[in-house]
Structure formats: C-alpha cells, structure tokens
C-alpha cells in the first residue's frame, strides 16, 4: 500500500482528567492560548495522510462546540464511553459506517499534544510496509525505558504503628522494556474484534495494542521521542508547555 494513503484517526477525549485535577477536564486546559485538545487535533489536521478526525467526547462536554476546530469539515464529534477503551470502540463503530473496515485507523490520546508530524509519518510508513507474511497486525509509537527499574514488594513494618511500605523485590532487566505511546495503528475490523473479545473476557485494556496482544497478535514497536508525553499529572502541564513551545519554534 503506498504511504500516501489517507487514514482516519480517533482521538479519545472523553476523560475527566481526575489526576491533573484542573478546574476543567485536562483536554481543555489552555497552553499558549490554545486548549490541549486543539493542539492535538491541529497536528492531525496539518498532516497530509490524515482524513477524518473522530473526537470522542464526554456526554456532558459543553466546551467542544465552542472551539473553532468543531466546525472543521474533517472533524467529527462522537460521544465516548465510561473507559478509554469504550470510547475507542464507539469511535471505531462509527467509522466503519463510512470507511472500508479492512483499512488502517490511528488512535491518538487527546492528552498527548506534543506528538510531532514526522513521528506520525514514520509510524504510518512502518505500519503500511508490514507484509502479510510478517505476521504483525499493526504498530505503535513507543519509547525505550532508560531508567533502572525496580519491582516492588509490600512489607509490613511493625516498629511503632504497623504500616505497609514498599521495598525492592528485584531489579528488572530494562533492555526489553518500552513505554507505550500513541498513535497506535491497526486495521479497523481487527481492532474492533480484539477489543470486543477483550471486553467480553473482562480483560483490562489500557491501549489498543494490549487488545491485539491478548488475541495472540504481534505488534510492531516504532521508536518515538520521550517528548510525546501523556499529560497525566499536574506537573505534566509545564512539561507540555515547554515541548509545545520548542515544537512551535522549530516549525517557524
Ligand atoms: N472514558 C474515557 C476515558 C479517557 N479517555 C481519553 O483517553 C485519553 C487517555 O486517558 P487518561 O490520560 O487516563 O485520561 P483521563 O481518563 O481523562 O484521566 P484520569 O485517569 O486522570 O481521570 C485521554 O485523552 C482521555 O480523554 C476517553 O476518551 N474516554
Ligand atoms: C494509550 C496510552 O496512552 C499508552 O500510554 C495509555 O495506556 C492510556 O492511558 P493510561 O491511563 O496511562 O493507561
């Protein structure tokens, strides 16, 4: 398949951002005069291999329609579900009504506004270059772990008040560990099947790749930069502000 094909992207933005605990849901926190969701959607609007952008919204989202991106012809808003995986599934079920279900779709968190266009292009190139004989069903951006990683064990220390502490059980070999990022790219019909199968079994699915893994499929890791952070904690807002201003400067 030529890498100039056009792919839809689902942007899950139906969360409430409880861990950031801002005055608004985190996707509506403003950085440099634009909401986090606008930064994220804008990257995909500017990318020449992206077609429809399906933004998954919380049922009580009254902010999205006030943004100018809401009126863009490529952008479509759909109500999401209780968990991220439910929102992604709703988005997929919506796209297959108007796109070939055997085609690839990208899924990218609204909460990752610092992804850059070159990495999206690389992911698409690597994913569409997979041959059927490779037995790999799709690809995700991910970043190799660079820190020393400890596995914790819980212990009860009974000096004074009885309390639980974490102590080190062992040190994990890091050379095979990667941080999963988004975008993640799979064929729509295969992803729907994998998610539905996982949900039916009650498996926790924190990303699309885990649904595929649980179906016994192989997923390609495409190395992305550590700057593609997910805004999860309050301190991530300052980090995203730094990365977004660096991206804006390099685009000038
Ligand atoms: N029911 C949900 C929950 C999450 N998301 C989206 O999935 C992405 C990644 O999830 P996370 O960072 O966990 O976001 P929140 O659920 O909003 O955060 P928290 O867990 O702190 O409440 C976010 O863009 C979020 O809006 C979604 O579309 N639907
Ligand atoms: C998909 C994801 O962004 C990969 O890092 C992540 O799994 C989504 O949310 P989580 O709350 O960090 O699991």
Automatic annotation (TrEMBL):
Keyword field: Isoprene biosynthesis, Nucleotidyltransferase, Transferase
UniProt pathway: Isoprenoid biosynthesis; isopentenyl diphosphate biosynthesis via DXP pathway; isopentenyl diphosphate from 1-deoxy-D-xylulose 5-phosphate: step 2/6
A molecular function GO annotation: 2-C-methyl-D-erythritol 4-phosphate cytidylyltransferase activity
Catalytic activity: 2-C-methyl-D-erythritol 4-phosphate + CTP + H(+) = 4-CDP-2-C-methyl-D-erythritol + diphosphate
Example GO biological process: isopentenyl diphosphate biosynthetic process, methylerythritol 4-phosphate pathway
SUPFAM superfamilies attached to this UniProt entry: Nucleotide-diphospho-sugar transferases
UniProt EC number: 2.7.7.60
Pfam families on file: IspD
Record-annotated site: Positions MEP for the nucleophilic attack: 174, 230
Enzyme type, top EC level: transferase
PANTHER family the record matches: 2-C-METHYL-D-ERYTHRITOL 4-PHOSPHATE CYTIDYLYLTRANSFERASE, CHLOROPLASTIC
Role of this protein: Catalyzes the formation of 4-diphosphocytidyl-2-C-methyl-D-erythritol from CTP and 2-C-methyl-D-erythritol 4-phosphate (MEP).
Protein family: Belongs to the IspD/TarI cytidylyltransferase family. IspD subfamily.
UniProt-recorded name of the protein: 2-C-methyl-D-erythritol 4-phosphate cytidylyltransferase
Organism: Glaciecola punicea ACAM 611
Higher taxonomy: Bacteria, Pseudomonadati, Pseudomonadota, Gammaproteobacteria, Alteromonadales
């Amino acid at each position: 398949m030529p890498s100039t094909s056009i792919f839809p992207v689902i942007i899950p933005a139906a969360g409430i951002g409880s861990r950031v605990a801002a005055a608004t849901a985190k996707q509506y926190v403003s950085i440099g005069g634009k909401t986090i969701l606008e930064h994220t959607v804008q990257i995909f609007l500017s990318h020449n291999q992206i077609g429809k952008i399906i933004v998954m919204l919380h049922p009580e989202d009254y902010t999205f329609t006030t943004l100018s991106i809401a009126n863009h012809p490529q952008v479509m808003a759909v109500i999401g579900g209780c968990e991220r995986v439910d929102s992604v599934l709703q988005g997929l079920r919506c796209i297959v009504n108007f796109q070939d279900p055997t085609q690839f779709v990208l899924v990218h968190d609204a909460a990752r506004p610092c992804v850059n266009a070159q990495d999206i292009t690389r992911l698409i190139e690597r994913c569409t270059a997979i041959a059927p004989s490779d037995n790999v069903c799709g690809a995700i951006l991910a970043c190799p772990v660079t820190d020393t990683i400890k596995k914790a064990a819980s212990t009860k220390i009974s000096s004074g008040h009885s309390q639980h502490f974490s102590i080190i059980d062992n040190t994990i070999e890091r050379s095979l560990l990667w941080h999963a990022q988004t975008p993640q790219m799979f064929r729509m019909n295969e992803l729907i099947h994998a998610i539905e199968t996982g949900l039916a079994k009650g498996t926790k699915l924190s990303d699309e790749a885990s649904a595929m893994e649980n179906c016994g499929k192989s997923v390609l890791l495409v190395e992305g930069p550590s700057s593609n952070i997910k805004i999860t904690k309050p301190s991530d807002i300052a980090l995203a502000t730094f990365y977004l201003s660096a991206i804006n400067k390099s685009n000038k």
